Amino acid sequence: MMKLWTDFLRGLWKENPTFRLLIGMCPTLAVTTSAANGLAMGLATSFVLICSSTIVSLVKSVIPKKVRIPSYTIIIATFVTIADLVLAANMPEMHKVLGLFIPLIVVNCLILGRAEAYANKAPVHYAIADAVGMGLGFTWALTLLGGVREVLGMGSLFGHALFGANFTPWVIAILPPGAFITLGIMVGGMNQLTAYLDQRKKTSTRRTVSGSSVAQ
Amino acid sequence: MKELVLLFFGSAIVNNFVLARFLGICPFLGVSKEVNTALGMGMATTFVLTMSGAAAWLVQHFILDAFNLPFLQYVAFILIIASLVQLVEMFLQKTSPALYKALGIFLPLITTNCAILGLALLVVLKGYNLLETIVFSLGAGAGFTLAMLMMAGIRSQLQFADVPKPLQGSGIALLIAGLMSMAFMGFSGLIAM
Known about the structure:
The structure holds 2 protein chains of 2 kinds.
Chain A: H1 2-12, H2 25-31, H3 35-59, H4 68-90, H5 92-98, H6 109-119, H7 124-154, E1 156-157, E2 160-161, H8 176-215
Antiparallel strand pairs in A: 1-2
Chain B: H1 2-14, H2 25-30, H3 35-64, H4 73-95, H5 97-103, H6 107-110, H7 114-126, H8 130-158, H9 170-185
Helix pairs in contact in B: 1-8, 3-4, 3-7, 3-8, 4-5
């Protein structure tokens, strides 16, 4: 149970695919022009990631080692086709906005990376916990990035205007350079935050250790 | 002829694959620490891009369209790319060991480069003919190589710069890419695509 929980949490913060590992960068940068787009992309990727990790973990003993990468790729491509057709049928507008980047989920290194690094070694429930964590980690990162760019570039969040008519949108934030710069600053901020948290943890444990030794 | 030249520069510079279309970001950030490796990666990618662009065009027109199988497009294309990369690897190993040695380590990485699958899907979407597809692919490869080389050049100078600690590594690379992308925006609208 404990291991299930750590497998799940790993993707959310400590090995967050976007801010920590910087994988799956193409969709991250390309579609996050608004919070809703980021959320939709994150959920579509999570769906493919969870399904393919499950299947890879189930069939891992059947696939010969030499052809594992092509086999995983085909499993992933199948689920991407499903996601693509479902999105096209139910959310045609979102399908149009995400466009080319839905088929490109096939080559998102995050999905193949988890299949190769984790799902083909772990039992199926651990693989699912890991995939759900990584998928949610990817989704929150994309939604946050999309939200920041939408607020700066259009003055709205999830389509709701936040500021009055006097607000001049900072259009560069939703253009390609804005994607790189916003993500760069956010990665820097995350590193700073982690360093600060580590520092605080270290000093607080030191304090308790010295405190207990005094008590003795 | 004039259209083909415009198509080449359009895909290389105006709509640069890396900086304007966000395709191939992973190698752009990952393999751009030295100029020589960046050049090798760029050349290997251009090679595979052109071959797979043409192959995808042929498969789309003579198999998928002919037998009305559009839903197999993603599976078919990714298979073409993966097997083509393998084929190129074996071919180079036999015929030109020197080139194989130079490109060798990059070839397996190319399968998961989104620029390759992205280009294959784009040429179908835009309805190019075979010649246009090849020119477009060459332009895309040239643009990718250009962006990789510029990034590697800047990053090798960066070793002497005093970068704030949280931004070291990927943070500063993303900021540089942002500035480069801003510079490339100056070309936008030059050629209508």
